[in-house]
């Protein structure tokens, strides 16, 4: 399996596209046909899948700096496009939630029946306050989900950083071990060079001794020959 940054980015991008396509299909089709608790459950499921999509985006961002500079700009543009697609899905989800909240207000207790011509008009200020309250609650929930997602990504990034530090520590120990080995090898080479110099010195010494002995023998032979010829 190819674990290069480019291959991982491509895998994340493929998963992201499938997830976004699924979210669009639910928001534009299935969710609109549901009502009540079923619709709330479907919207909650969509929110969870949105968190998953944001996590995939975060993983794509992690892989981006490790890519070669020659192709990084291309993948940066693709990442920006994916973020824009995710923002559009988020906006669609907000619109669906607001529409769902308005529908609940219109059909909830205390709101007059539009089909009843004798019903009283609603209190506009109460309607507006309740709408703002629902929107504020939704914003708070969305912020909480973002904070949880950011914390999860931070923890994962911390784990990645710890792994990198452990790898660097191991590499430093290997380098130090290699350096010690080189120092020992250098010492061995120095000792071998000293031994070799001693051997060379002894070799020349033996040559000089041998030459002296030969010279003495030649002189003795010459003396013997001279004495016989005299």
UniProtKB/TrEMBL annotation:
One GO process term, biological-process aspect: macroautophagy
Q: Where is this region: Disordered?
A: 97-127
Q: Where is the signal peptide?
A: none
Q: Where are the transmembrane segments?
A: 208-227
Q: Which residues form the T-SNARE coiled-coil homology domain?
A: 132-199
InterPro entries for the chain = SNARE, T_SNARE_dom, v-SNARE_N_sf, Vesicle_trsprt_v-SNARE_N
Q: Name one GO cellular component term.
A: SNARE complex
The record, for Pfam families, names: V-SNARE (PF05008), V-SNARE_C (PF12352)
Q: Which UniProt keywords apply?
A: Coiled coil, Membrane, Protein transport, Transmembrane, Transmembrane helix, Transport
Q: Per UniProt, what is the membrane topology? A: Single-pass type IV membrane protein
GO terms assigned for molecular function:
SNAP receptor activity; SNARE binding
Subcellular location, record wording: Membrane
Hey, which family's this protein in? Belongs to the VTI1 family.
Protein name, please? Answer: t-SNARE
| Source lineage | Eukaryota, Fungi, Dikarya, Basidiomycota, Agaricomycotina
